[in-house]
From TrEMBL:
SUPFAM superfamilies the record matches: Bet v1-like (SSF55961)
The name this protein goes by in its record: SRPBCC family protein
Gene3D superfamilies attached to this UniProt entry: 3.30.530.20
Segments forming a coiled coil: none
InterPro entries linked to this entry: Polyketide_cyclase/dehydratase, START-like_dom_sf
Taxon lineage: Bacteria, Bacillati, Actinomycetota, Actinomycetes, Streptosporangiales
Pfam families assigned to the protein according to its UniProt record, in alphabetical order: Polyketide_cyc2
């Protein structure tokens, strides 16, 4: 399953890249994040592997995230017109995914964030599970778009998704 989401953010590309790359900000915009801790490497840097726990309703899912691309490595003084790339692999029980993010200048103070997601599911056996797999793409696409909208609200307005839950 593959899909692409995009959103424009009313901030310069360099600022958006810095906010996205800083793991300290994740709980402010990534709904359901319980834990995001490095197992090896430096948080947010290329090659880092992290343990991630997400909660949706009463269900918790634990997975492993590995940062496979961060280009440029230094997010200060990014050359005008260049594209910022972030890529990560995520694996957990019954699933594997890769997310490829691109940040480009959409205007003087505006950034276009395009995110390409690819999911593979394992362990789907039986008719019911195959049916569920067919119905999932829309839900995954919608959830990814919600994360991007939450990031936009955090980056532009300082909104924190944790405050909505209270």
């Amino acid at each position: 399953m593959k899909y692409v989401n995009s959103i424009e953010i009313a901030l310069p590309r360099e600022r958006v890249a810095q906010l996205l790359a800083d793991p300290a900000h994740l709980p402010k915009w990534l709904r359901g994040l319980v834990l995001h801790e490095p197992v090896s490497g430096v948080h947010g840097q290329l090659g880092t592997t992290s343990r991630v726990v997400l909660r949706s309703g009463r269900r918790e899912m634990e997975c492993t995230e590995t940062i496979t691309r961060r280009d440029p490595a230094d997010l200060r003084g990014i050359p005008k017109g260049s594209v910022v790339h972030f890529e990560r692999e995520i694996s957990g029980p019954g699933m594997w995914s890769v997310v490829r993010d691109r940040l480009t200048e959409a205007g003087l103070e505006t950034t276009l964030w395009e995110s390409e997601s690819e999911y593979r599911f394992t362990g789907f056996s039986g008719l019911l599970m195959r049916l569920v797999a067919l119905l999932m793409p829309g839900a995954f696409h919608k959830q990814s778009q919600q994360h991007m909208e939450d990031f936009k609200a955090f980056a532009e307005l300082g909104k924190d998704v944790r405050e909505e839950a209270n």
